[in-house]
Specification:
Blueprint: E1 6-9, H1 13-24, E2 29-32, E3 46-48, H2 54-60, H3 64-70, E4 78-81, E5 87-91, E6 102-104
Parallel strand pairs: 1-2
Antiparallel strand pairs: 3-6, 4-5
Length: 112
């Protein structure tokens, strides 16, 4: 029996990851997105890919090494200020802290 050809609508992180996993399992897939190209609109934003969710999906897609190369562990750093600007809490990500590194969305990652 031939594998069905699957259409994935949306070229964001979820759609691209879904397509990648399907491809790894031999399922032909085509991704459709509203943007005509990477330059069609301003791209921006980051995602926190947590070890117990998003990073598992990255591993299932066989993209762990690429993710590690592009992830920004320093993106886990954060601080909380009260309305007057007084520091209430600060977390500075240390070396090896990979619980939820920030990464640019899938279609924004630099092509290398």
């Amino acid at each position: 029996m031939n594998a069905p050809h699957v259409a994935v609508v949306g070229g964001g992180p979820g759609g691209l990851l879904c397509a990648r996993v399907l491809q790894r399992h031999g399922v032909p897939v085509t991704v459709f997105d509203a943007d005509a190209s990477l330059a069609a609109r301003v791209q921006g934003g980051t995602l926190d890919l947590h070890a117990d969710t998003g990073q598992i999906a990255i591993e299932d897609a066989g993209l762990t090494a690429e993710f590690a190369r592009l992830a920004r562990p320093e993106g886990q750093s954060k601080r909380m200020l009260d309305p007057a600007g007084t520091l209430l809490m600060e977390h500075v990500a240390g070396p090896g802290d990979t619980a939820a590194p920030a990464a640019s969305c899938g279609r924004c990652w630099p092509r290398r």
